[in-house]
Amino acid sequence: MMEEQEKQIMDARNKGVDEKMDARNKEMKEEIIARIEKMDEKINARNKEMNEKMDATNKNMDEKMDARNKEMDEKMDTRMERMGARMKVKCTEDKMENKMKKFEKIMRNATTTGSCDVTSVPRTIQPPSNDGQTLWSSYKKQFEAAAKANL
Fold this sequence. Notes:
Blueprint: H1 2-113, H2 136-149
């Protein structure tokens, strides 16, 4: 009987210890969960802060890139305009040089032969104006002759 009483006492003690351990485990579990939740809140707040900073930095970089691109476009436009102007000047210079060579050739002919070769000088023939009194067929022939001579 003694043994049975001792066993009951031991069982009761073990039951009390188990209950205390279960209660302590429950408390610890709740503490751990609370700490994890606090850490999650801090992490989420920090992530939000970092995302806001990154968004602001990205916006700032986009603005700077847009400004730089605009500046580069303006510089490129200016350079293209200058290049176009230079090309026009060069084209005009080339035309003037060709005309000058033709003129010099005519002048050399005039000084060596004593006469000016006017056949090399381009000329245009103007047809008479149609006054309404000339026959159409006559005016047409004069116009065609002037056009042919000007080719």
